[in-house]
């Protein structure tokens, strides 16, 4: 069965079975999902791990009769001491033997993969849109500002120079916005050893300096988390953007004296980002007790220029997602009134 050991690298659940559903090989992902050892799985009747065994037997008969190249169906996978897992089953016969490969993709994992692929495509689209739009704005902006300055030099009336000052001021404001849009794509990715708790402590000191009264910052750290390779300044900016947004959303609670932001770090195991499986990953939660993300922007919260408050630039979370994706991770959000949880996931060595 050594030829099947490469299946251990897959995030999907894989079993290699014979025509009578006897298991010849089980990959590590399936072992984790079922909650039983590989030694126990091998040699067992694989149909019995499904709530409806007849579906697999029927699929195996069709595979032996060459009735299809690959058969797909949905099923429920029984797990040791846990609720049944909805999976999408793919049954394929190997070309070199009568062994049959049964691949199972958890429906939750499939949904997550689809969401992550959409986020990655969205981030790439946003990146191209931002760069193109910023350059299109920047080119004429210098001309407008220069023309306003020349016009101001020709004017003798102080009242009229107020208008040119408005033009210059607004041109400078737009220039600043353009520079912020382009910043993450200009700065090189500086990699070094990062201690995530040093990042959290730096952000904690910054937000407490800005909100010294009415805000409590709770630290819930797993101190066993190892250092990893990353861009420390980018990660500080990422956590700061999220925490700062949380504090602004907590304005009423801070005024009432019961605003709370929690930094929580954990290690998660056997997690999949996109289509790649990682043995370990960092989970950093930034949790606040504010009103929650408005329903109107929940699906667009990482889009550029989308903000849930008046006067917001809508760039903080966009930049945070960009920086985390440069670390091969992603940011997820779970929000209900009274509790918003931004979860940063980054692979660990």
UniProtKB/TrEMBL annotation:
Tell me the CDD domains matching this sequence: HisKA
The record's listing under PROSITE patterns reads: HIS_KIN (PS50109)
This protein's source sits in the domain of life called: Bacteria
- Reaction it catalyzes: ATP + protein L-histidine = ADP + protein N-phospho-L-histidine
Every copy of the Histidine kinase domain together lies at: 132-349
What's the gene?
A: glnL
Pfam families, alphabetized: HATPase_c (PF02518), HisKA (PF00512)
Alphabetized UniProt keyword annotations: ATP-binding, Kinase, Nucleotide-binding, Phosphoprotein, Transferase, Two-component regulatory system
InterPro entries registered for this protein in UniProt: HATPase_C_sf, HATPase_dom, His_kinase_dom, HisK_dim/P_dom, HisK_dim/P_sf, PAS-like_dom_sf, Sig_transdc_His_kin-like_C
Any one Gene Ontology MF annotation carried by this entry is:
ATP binding
**Enzyme class per UniProt:** transferase
Its Enzyme Commission number(s) read: 2.7.13.3
Question: What name does UniProt use for this protein?
Answer: histidine kinase
